[in-house]
Amino acid sequence: MKLIYDVQDRPPMKETIIFAFQQMIAIMAATLLVPMLMTGFTGGNVYFDPAAALCGAGFGTIVYILFTKGKSPVFLGSSFTFLGAYAATLGAGFGYWGVIIGIAFAGLVYVAIALIVKFVGSKWVNKILPPIIIGPIVALIGLSLSGTATGWAMTNGGNDYNLLSILCALVTFFVIVLVSVRGGKKLKLIPFIIGIGAGYVLALIFTLIGIAADTPYLQILSFKPFEEAFSPIAFTSFLDLPKFTFVEAIKHPELSNINGAAIATIALIFIPIGVVELAQHVADHKNLGNIINKDLISDPGLDKTLLGDGVGSIVGGFFGGAANTTYGESIGCVAITGNASVVSIFVASIGCIVLSFITPFVALIESIPKCVMGGACIALYGFIAVSGLQMLKKVDLGNNKNLFVVSAILVTGIGGLVLDFGHKEDGSAIIEISTLAVAMIIGIITNLIAHNGKMATGEEIESEDAGLAAAVEGMEAVVTNEQTIIDDAPVQEEVKDEAPKAE
Predict the structure, then answer these.
(1) pLDDT of 185-205, one tens digit each?
(2) Is the predicted pLDDT of residue 498 greater than 50, yes or no?
(3) Please, are residues 418 and 404 in contact by the beta-carbon 8 Å criterion?
């Protein structure tokens, strides 16, 4: 796609700050939500601070930028993929240290694979994950997240259906669309800031009316984050040190029941997830590379992106308690704004670290209604899905061999097929292979079956057909040329002996 600013470009400082703030808004809701869910797994006995997770995401992203030599413009935020692992670890009573150790295991999986890629090369990745596989996988990432966007839009993150919540979501989305396609040159750079701002104002108006009329249905926005920050008013109401996970683990060792058996159990929980996450890592970087017109698997290289992601995740978990991963919201933001400057990502990282100490800002971000973020995510997740479909533009879907591969990935992925192995007392699986990984595995197997044991790209059929067509065309040309020679040859008139006429 056409970029306003390329990866190595340095936008003016004013624009850089605006771009960075937009990235921060795009990733914050989900990044802050993960630690809230983790705290819920323990009933509040073990607390994971959203501000600490935000700070950890900032540090993790900086680590990623350093490992990738500033060539991959994407933000790392709290990963939802590990929620099941967090629940199992916290449910077993392993506490803070259990989560930190588990994230370290998952990150080391990336490091190990990166070392293999370093010595073996990354060509095998393109063979295993050609366009016919990676295209629908990327589309699946966006489509699988769509339920979150629409769920937030309909219920505002709760359980009750609310038409006003949907209205706030749609206003947010439509404003983003209008600004993106009809806004001025400057406005087109910040569609999410304007869209989310419009949705927030509308939700605030409904909420104030609802409070005045004592009607809960109208109260879309919650003031609870501000109440917690300013009740009572103290120095910490303005500046506060996040409750870093490693600090809490040191302060409360009694909340972590760790021994040799526990470490082995934690490893079995986290390592398989780290392995299957490779699919999403490759898909995200293929998608981002397609957007910025660069092959990130080759440069900076898959080994560099894996190291950045793995070590960045360990750092993020150490500070914030949540493993990090490349964020689709960040990639979607790059696609929509056309700004791929890695400087913007770096400034966003610094911004997250700094703002995690500023209590009012954290409260403001936490107060953004889920329905408003749902409206923004309709655009973000939609762009991810469409980016995947664009990878299929050269794949011949009129050929059943290719159609089977793509359909297998989409149906099993959207349908939510997972593989569970073993069950704990609460009925949950000991090891679960995620939907994305299962869809990828089934897609690879289908590709091998459909193409007689070969990992086809989907474009090979076209090239074979093109070669056949060229051969036929060549034969027709030869025949045509020969006919032309015959037609153009001088015609010898037939000589007839005629008897002389009598005078």
Answers:
(1) 778 778 888 999 999 999 999
(2) no
(3) no
Neighbours of 243 (CB within 10 A): 17
- pLDDT (0 to 100) of residue 322: 92
Residue 301 belongs to some domain of the structure: yes
Nearest to 256 by CA among 45, 41, 44, 32: 45
Residue whose structure tokens are 């009316």: 209
Distance in angstroms (rounded) separating the CA atoms of residues 260 and 242: 30
Integer Cα distance of 187 and 109 in angstroms: 42
Cα distances (angstroms) measured from residue 269 to each of 431, 432, 458:
6, 9, 36
Do 410 and 386 share a structural domain?
A: no
The two tokens of residue 349 are: 């990282």
Distance CA 87, CA 366 (A): 23
Sole residue written with tokens 């090369």: 121
Residue with tokens 């489509």: 143
Which tokens sit at 416? Answer: 């939510």
pTM assigned to the model: 0.75
The radius of gyration of the chain's CA atoms, rounded to the nearest angstrom, is 29
Asked whether the beta carbons of 269 and 88 are under 8 A apart, the reply is yes
Do 24 and 119 have their domain in common?
yes
Report pLDDT digits (tens) over 403-440.
999 999 999 988 988 888 777 666 666 666 777 778 88
Residue 129 tokens read as: 């994950």
Which of residues 329, 362, 393 is at a domain's end?
A: 393
Check whether residue 284 and residue 404 sit in a common domain.
Answer: no
Peptide bond into 50 cis (omega under 30): no
DSSP at 215: -
**C-alpha pair distances (Å), 385 with each of 81, 146, 298, 378, 410:** 18, 9, 23, 11, 11
